[in-house]
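Predict the 3D structure for this chain.
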Amino acid sequence: MIQITRQAGALSGTLDQSSLNNADPTTTKSTHAAFTGTMDGEAMTLSFPQGLGFVTNLSGTVSGSKMTLQVPQEDGSIAPFALAPGSTDTYNRKVAVVQAKADANLSAREAAAASSAAAASLQERRQQVAKAAESVMQDAAAVRAGLANPPSFSDFERDLAAAKENLANAKTNAAKADREQDESSACSDAYSAESDAYSVESDSYSIDSDMSGLASEIQALKDAAAQLDRNLSEYQQAAAALPGYTPPNAPDANRIQDLSNQVSTKTAAWKKKGAGYQTEVAKLLKEARAVAAQAQKDHC
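Done. Predicted structure below.
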């Protein structure tokens, strides 16, 4: 909007301009500049003492009710800019239109940002579900490996065999004591039987140690199964919060439950088997002590 006053050939007035900001179309930029000028016939020149961007002078023409300004462009060219008579209210309405465009651009940007954020959030939640599913599958693989590699009872067998051999030695030495004619020799044999009984007791301690190792293996598998159950629960909660999405590696809850049941069943069987060795060696130790005690009583 140009508001202009003419006195003879002298001009003065103000120029107001409102437009979208090229750098940020969600905002507007406004210009208000005072000018002076001259007019000769239809030709006129406007001078801006404080400058108008990079423009200090504008030339133009007035023909009837129309004014045309020759406006320098940023690329160095000159472009005509036509103006027609109007009112301040008309200009203000046009400024409001410019501001409305800026507001619309801002709303569009915010909507796009919100849509992008929603998409990013959805993708992140899907990744969380998939990650939870992967944790379940890894835990399940660890449990299966544990079930496929049961504890070895070879140490139990070796220590039980040693206990049986030492019991046999105790019986042999006790029987030898019974056959001795010399009481001193018989008492010595009885002490040998007692030593054999102590060896059976040592074998019993070894089996207790084997049982401790077995208990550690059992607990490790139970812990793995418990971790599997916890991660399955976390996966189910995450999946429930995102209905309609199933990750490619979604775990089968029934199979996971079957694994948990196998862990309970097999670890109970392993523990029972280990306890059986303890019971058997306890009987051997009791018998060895009785044999040694009787030999001591009879011959020492």
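The chain has two domains: 2-85, 125-299.
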